[in-house]
């Protein structure tokens, strides 16, 4: 996994038009794929019981956010291992390996996306009807998978390999934001 990382980092980036084409290639299946996978799962998985009260749905959301946090925790442990085996370094002077730099970028981006995701889930949970609350575990598992796709793509191909994971995560998060706003407006 790590033997090809210096080669990836040293590879020249394609020109802007080539980068756009590479990124656009995955948009055609990640954006509609996100909506389709969540829609199919929502229709196949039966509603959960015992969620009549808003606090029960909020509790469900906080519990399932632990699942969504798994990629962040995993990359933190990966960084911990790399730092242990590479030795301590002064981050203000640089000198990190390419592998460590990628993991640190994955950690930062995953945290940023997790904040957006968590705020939306916590806002949505009490406003959902009890029969709709099974959306929460579905999107938490999807978020986990999307972030793992992002991490894997980054390690495998470099910066352009992130595109499918970014697109999956962004499509999910933007739809959750719109859902939160729509539910909020409906409640006003």
Q: Number of domains in the coordinates?
A: 1
- Form type: globular
The proportion of strand residues reads under 5%
Mean pLDDT: 90
Number of helices: 7
User: What structural class results from the helix and strand content?
Assistant: mainly alpha
The separation of the N and C termini measures 51 Å
- Report the CATH C-level class: Mainly Alpha
Sketch the major β-sheet. Answer: none
Helix fraction? Answer: over 70%
Tell how many strands the DSSP assignment holds.
0
- Uncertain parts: 1-11
The radius of gyration is 19 Å
- Gross CATH architecture: Up-down Bundle
* Annotated CATH topology: Four Helix Bundle (Hemerythrin (Met), subunit A)
Order of helices and strands: HHHHHHH
Write up what this structure looks like.
This protein has 188 residues and is mainly α. The chain has a single domain, classed as Up-down Bundle (Four Helix Bundle (Hemerythrin (Met), subunit A)). The chain is built from 7 helices and no strands.
